[in-house]
Amino acid sequence: MRYAWIDTQRTLYSVSRLCRVLQVSRSGYCQWRVRRPSLRSLANAVLDAQVKAVHTASQRSYGRLRIVQKLREQDQRIGHERVRQSLMRQGLRPVYRRRYRNTTDSDHALPVAPNVIARQFDGWAPDRAWVGDVTYVATQEGWLYLAAILDLGTRRIVGWSLSDRMTSDLVCDALKSAYWQRKPAPGLIMHTDRGSQYASRSHRTLLQDYGMVASMSRRANAWDNAVMESFFKTLKVERIYQVRYATRAQARLDIVNWIEGFYNRQRLHSAIGYRTPVQMEAALKAA
User: CA–CA separation, 173 vs 185, rounded Å?
Assistant: First the structure.
């Protein structure tokens, strides 16, 4: 460390003077300058570049666990401790995770479906159980509302809709988007909270027309739709909170790009064995 510091100051002061101040020999410093880097330092430099590339490609959202998984996908035999040290050397860390809250308007007299899912979020085949929810995004033009639908078998976002109004049309458009993209067989379970948009006549009619089974969370129980809550938290802390949207149009484009370009196809998901939703879907269909 002393030699390295001297090297950074040698243009300002004489080497001999710096060596006297730090009480090291000038010959030792000269030998240090011409000495080849150790194999360990060379390996660390290569690893640092790989870790930084994965961290950057993840839009700064990956921490140690996902970086290790990504490097192992690239046939790198790497341990968690070396990746942790690399992150520390470079001062890299996942984007700041601030508290996320979501609210549901369930104070209505509309019909409410039973909780068919009952927190059984794992083990589903593709397009047999979906979950949906609504969240809001701040722009300088005002709020933008996002309704999204996630497939429990693959954790893939299969449908979405964006609007400046949080109405039943918003959630109906998301359901139409998912249905026409996926064409699921009758009997699919569509689970949501019991908000007025999902309990509306128009949404219930769509479910009936598509041959879907309605399922709703219990009142004021966010855990009953935890998978969708988790997706919105990921979207907000990893992307939305990192950007200032001037217009709703800018927010629309950025959110759709993140969902389709990054989340569905690139982001490793811990609940499905650190695979992407698209990879999980392919694996389930091939099984």
Answer: 19
